[in-house]
Write a structure and sequence with these properties.
five-stranded antiparallel sheet, 655 residues
Length: 655
């Protein structure tokens, strides 16, 4: 249509978004159309009463009435029923399109739209409208040909209504007798190369060809009614599989016999991919919610259990330091100590599920860390590990115990998959993630760790469940290993993926945020002094058994222990020590004191009294950001429970 002719065509745009009105108006003005605007249904109706437009662009979501109702109102009025209405909306589900056509719309455009597509569809429907007017004039002029013109109008309407989408007509043999440019573009053939070719032999994938032919033959025989909407896969000329959504109708001759089928199609492959990605992310969210729910319960249990383990591990480590290795009691206590440490590993798994189980991080070289973790797990096994670390790997900030636990679970999983032994390939590289819909991470720098085995593989039916708590395909397994790993990586603001094929093996990929701090500088380790320490240390804890245990440890290490049971008592004792000019050299404060001031409240008051106070926070459950970010709250160090005599000694030597 020439631009000069467009000047005579009036188009009404109805949309409550001013920016949409401006974009469409500018687009149409450039094509020399006369444009009017309305921001709601009421204004639109008044505008139509004054001057009837040649075509209407109608949004569905309007403030005073929806687009469907407005269209129905126009179609029920004899004065406006023939004005073509093109719906234009962000709504993209099939049900929305059906409602639009049921309301009387002639086409449906999806936001955001392409300018060329909008102009092409407008021109097409203006031509259709013009043809309709001419046909109606001819019908009025010649009543004898009324029936003929009516049938011709219906036939023309069928073809023209779908001129801007894929249009294909098949004869009774399934041969392509008509295809438009859009259709040729989708399937990748030139019109002259595809005409007269059998649709089912050329375009339909083998896996569904038999079913599609069966439906086609039933349609030709009139045994089933034509489907309003359906979806199926097609093969393009370059053998790519695409998903199309079809709208079809049978073609009948003047005697009413079915002679073929006419259908329009829209390529929805990208929509399906996007939907699958969305489903995957939603599944990951459900996975996260499951772990969070069990974590609430597990965290509480682990907290109490850790307090009991603290007494056992602390006292046995102290007792062992006082015994001769040849003593029979040394062997007995060693067994108790090792059993308690194994129980400690279980509580760490439970703590990982807890809502506030935040990692207590430090900056590490990931290459050295992975090698240490791997060597510890694979000693004495038939497994051989091959390493491939890229140069200049970024450092990461991790909780060493937690991530070691995660790596160990993945290695054990790989070794179980290769019971007769084999090679595990471990790789690490720097990677930058941008706006990625598949990996749900914020854009930025990450270190990627891959652990690949060549074992039995995991079947597809189990792949989406392996990170669920208590899910396992092995009878003797607890089902907590991979769920723990998933939770640890998530708490490090990272992500873990899995890919597996039966008979080929499994690969897990971990993404950890790169540290923003400067790289670790290598320095020589200072040997710990074997001399005993000295100084006054105040320990705050509500458990008498823990106070007695720590007292024995400190005495054996050369320190002078003092005790308090809550924050108020601690503050009082500390003030008295300052006044006596014999202040404490260090305070160890329990984070949680039932019914009293805990470590976080106490340190605030102590800092008011003495900004230079040295205090360590200690807890059996990292359910508070204080444990992960202790320096931000005024503490010098952190001491997770349970701890041994040697761990306490290592801490004290820092001061």
């Amino acid at each position: 249509m020439a631009l000069l002719e467009n000047k005579e065509k009036h188009i009404l745009i109805i949309d409550d978004k001013i920016e949409n009105l401006k974009v469409l108006s500018m687009m149409l003005h450039e094509q020399n159309f006369t444009v009017r605007e309305a921001i709601n249904g009421s204004i639109a109706l008044k505008s139509i009463q004054k001057v009837k437009p040649d075509l209407i662009l109608l949004d569905i979501l309007l403030p005073d009435m929806n687009g469907y109702d407005l269209c129905k109102q126009l179609k029920s009025n004899i004065e406006t029923k023939n004005i073509p209405v093109l719906f234009i909306s962000v709504l993209d589900e099939t049900k929305d399109k059906i409602k639009a056509f049921d309301a009387g719309g002639v086409d449906y455009l999806r936001k955001p739209f392409e300018e060329q597509e909008v102009i092409a569809r407008i021109n097409t429907h203006l031509k259709i409208s013009e043809l309709q007017k001419r046909l109606e004039q001819e019908i009025e002029a010649n009543k004898k040909t009324e029936k003929y013109l009516y049938e011709e109008k219906k036939k023309a309407q069928k073809y023209l209504d779908i001129a801007c989408v894929m249009l294909v007509a098949l004869n009774s043999k399934g041969e392509i007798i008509l295809i438009n440019k859009k259709g040729c573009k989708i399937i990748g053939y030139k019109e002259e190369d595809i005409l007269r070719k059998n649709w089912f032999e050329t375009i339909i994938p083998k896996k569904i060809k038999e079913d599609m032919l069966n439906v086609f033959h039933k349609l030709m025989a009139g045994d089933v009614e034509s489907f309003e909407y359906f979806e199926n896969s097609i093969l393009t000329k370059d053998n790519q599989e695409r998903i199309l959504q079809f709208h079809n109708t049978v073609i009948k001759n003047e005697l009413g016999y079915i002679t073929g089928i006419l259908f329009s199609g829209e390529d929805i492959t990208e929509q399906r991919i996007a939907q699958e990605e969305k489903n995957k992310i939603e599944e990951q969210l459900r996975q996260s919610q499951k772990i969070e729910a069990i974590g609430t319960l597990a965290g509480g249990i682990a907290h109490d259990f850790n307090n009991m383990l603290g007494v056992i591990i602390g006292n046995t480590s102290y007792a062992l330091s006082r015994l001769n290795r040849d003593d029979e009691l040394f062997e007995i206590l060693s067994d108790v100590h090792e059993s308690a440490k194994r129980s400690q590993k279980l509580t760490r798994q439970l703590l990982t599920f807890a809502k506030g189980g935040d990692p207590i991080k430090k900056t590490v070289n990931i290459k050295e860390f992975i090698k240490e973790s791997v060597n510890f797990v694979t000693i004495g096994t038939k497994i051989i590990c091959e390493f491939d670390f890229k140069d200049d790997l970024w450092t990461v900030e991790i909780d060493v115990d937690q991530l070691n636990q995660a790596i160990s679970h993945l290695l054990l999983n790989a070794s179980h998959a290769m019971s007769e032994g084999g090679i595990i390939q471990i790789r690490s590289e720097n990677t930058i993630i941008e706006n990625d819909r598949i990996i749900p991470l914020l854009p930025g720098r990450y270190v990627k760790i891959s652990i690949q085995d060549h074992g039995l593989g995991i079947s597809e039916q189990y792949l989406s469940k392996i990170f669920e708590p208590y899910f396992s395909t092995k009878q003797k397994n607890s089902g907590l290993g991979l769920a723990t790993t998933y939770s640890i990586i998530k708490k490090h603001n990272g992500h873990i993926t899995v890919d597996s094929k039966i008979g080929e093996g499994t690969i897990f990929c971990i993404y950890l945020p790169a540290s923003k701090r400067a790289d670790i500088k290598k320095s020589e380790k200072k040997e710990a002094s074997q001399d005993k320490g000295h100084g006054k240390i105040l320990i705050m804890d509500d458990e008498e058994s823990i106070l007695r245990m720590v007292s024995r440890m400190l005495n054996s290490l050369g320190y002078e222990p003092y005790f308090s049971h809550d924050g108020d008592e601690t503050i009082k004792i500390y003030q008295e020590s300052l006044e006596s000019e014999k202040p404490f050299d260090l305070l160890i404060l329990d984070l949680t004191i039932p019914g009293g001031k805990g470590g976080a409240e106490t340190i605030k008051r102590l800092l008011d009294i003495n900004p230079n106070v040295k205090a360590v926070v200690s807890s059996g459950y990292s359910n508070d950001p204080v444990m992960a970010n202790f320096k931000n709250y005024g503490f010098c160090e952190v001491l997770p429970k349970p701890y041994t005599r040697n761990q306490l000694m290592d801490l004290l030597r820092k001061f």
